[in-house]
């Protein structure tokens, strides 16, 4: 019997039989902790293992992205506790200047096709975008992984999701992703892995795959993979072997728990309305909703391609007076690309605030919060009540957020 | 050996319309505004502090009480505090039709019992599990009895790894046992 992508990756990292429903011990290529979760990992490690060595310091990392630089004393203390631990154990820190940890791991080639990576980030399964088994875990799990290099893992079933047709030219990967959140809710993929097929999925570039794979968490899935004959060059470190690459594709006779077909032909831009990422409607249905602020960034939409799409809409125009637009590149590398391509200037001239790279805009952190009564439109991935403050958050694509900030109300980009 | 039999009063997490609340996310269980707290003893007061209708849970909850919730409990972030805050309140267990993968792992690793009863929603609608009912269960076998209604129920039994971690206390203690076996 053939194996699905996740079964192949697990099998390559375990001596146990990687069959769906079985719990196996899995070797981890990379284990990481953020400035959230990280301090607890340090605390648990010191308490449980004291001065004992890590399983492998060269496979262990800290990534600071949540509150960067620290905006409260408590976060400053927590980050410093991680830095001290890292120094003592010889571990590399991707510090507050580097950006979102999961993205940095991809850019650095640490998360690669066929690999296994864990971190204290519930969107770590975003690594499915590069064919890597990424999993978010709590601090107890990560402490155990730091010490042993292993984790116990239940092999999930896999669902094949086949996308039929192509979305409208005004829609982008985020609209597609939001539509899938609506169609599949938190039930279809719950506790399962997904493999996406069909041209609307396989034609996605690196940034588009990141957007899609980042919201598998909101569909309650374990991880999503986009299968393809060819992978965008940016994903492929030169030294990657054919064997590693083969893990990125399912066997032809793999067995699936379910096959879901979704028609996306002509799909127009979408918006998730408060307070659930699965509460999705076409932009046309909420058109005219007044907004106070916008946010473009996050692990879902913080790539160069995302900010370019926003800049295309904003170029030569102004964010409406009284509306605040915040842009946060995912990483320092993205920031550099935006700088070199003149995108930062377009954003600046439009009146947008451009902050340093990181997770800002999603959790409490360096890009501010929403106040009571404030209505925000965001490219993030969650709009749960109270998540980003007391206001209401709508989720949309970079182009929809940019267009809405120019108009001061929710509007579709094709009107520009 | 750790006790696998638990007995406690249940809190059924219903919304204003009387429906079992689904998709309770970690920001509703332990809000991100308190993530800087690393000491478990300080986490209790924030449990369900952002869940509409249940913000005063930490004041009402007694030692050994059990929580009954809707499907996909613990959605959202990877924060261990969403488990730890319930441990801090000495909650005995959470029972739900399903849990988010990360929440489930976090609970298992901390030796905190999480039980799955797929038909829970139907049982609650039928009035077979009500807040205040005294419930007895064996977390290992999944045998559950609502003593208040003399009603036997069935939860999914723990997996082998889950039993071993639970018996050891938590995943760290379990790891030490594995080391000794080598």
What does this entry look like structurally?
The complex is a heterodimer of chains A (416) and B (182). Chain A is an alpha/beta fold and 416 residues long. Chain A folds into three domains: 23-149, Aconitase, domain 3; 158-230 and 241-263, Aconitase, Domain 2 (3-Layer(aba) Sandwich); 272-415, Aconitase, domain 3 (2-Layer Sandwich). In chain A, 31% of the residues lie in helices and 18% in strands. Chain A has 15 helices and 18 strands. In chain A, the strands form five sheets. A five-stranded parallel sheet of chain A has the order 4-3-2-5-6, with helices on both faces. In chain A, strand 12 (270-272) and strand 13 form a beta hairpin. In chain A, helix 12 (304-314) packs across helix 14 (343-350). The N and C termini of chain A lie far apart (52 Å). Chain B is of the alpha/beta class and 182 residues long. Chain B has a single domain (5-181), classed as Aconitase, domain 4. Helix content of chain B is 28%, strand content 17%. Chain B has helices at residues 26-29, 57-60, 81-88, 101-109, 120-125, 160-168, 171-181, and strands spanning 5-12, 66-68, 93-96, 114-116, 134-138, 143-146, 151-154. In chain B, strand 5 and strand 6 form a beta hairpin. In chain B, helix 6 (160-168) crosses helix 7. Chain B is globular, with a radius of gyration of 16 Å. The two termini of chain B are 21 Å apart. The A-B interface holds A 23, 36-37, 39-40, 43-44, 48, 72, 74-75, 78, 120-122, 124, 135-141, 143-144, 147-148, 152, 154, 156, 186-187, 190-191, 217, 220, 222, 276, 363-364, 382, 384-387 and B 22-23, 25, 27-28, 31-33, 35-36, 38, 50, 52, 71-72, 75-80, 83, 98, 100-102, 105-106, 109-110, 159-161, 170-172, 175.
The radius of gyration over CA of chain B amounts to: 16 Å
How many E-type strands of chain A? 18
Structural class of chain A: alpha/beta
Low-confidence stretches of chain A: none
The largest sheet of chain A has its strands arranged as 4-3-2-5-6
> For this entry, what is the oligomeric state of its chains?
heterodimer
**Can you identify the CATH superfamily of the largest domain in chain A?**
Aconitase, domain 3
Q: Provide the number of structural domains of chain B.
A: 1
Provide a count of the helices of chain A: 15
Task: Give the overall average pLDDT of chain B.
Answer: 95
Number of helices of chain B: 7
Name given to the CATH architecture of the largest domain in chain A:
2-Layer Sandwich
The CATH architecture of chain B can be named as Alpha-Beta Barrel
Average the pLDDT over all residues of chain A and give the rounded result: 94
Radius of gyration of chain A: 21 Å
Helix content of chain A: 25-40%
Overall body shape of chain B: globular
State the CATH topology of the largest domain in chain A: Aconitase, domain 3
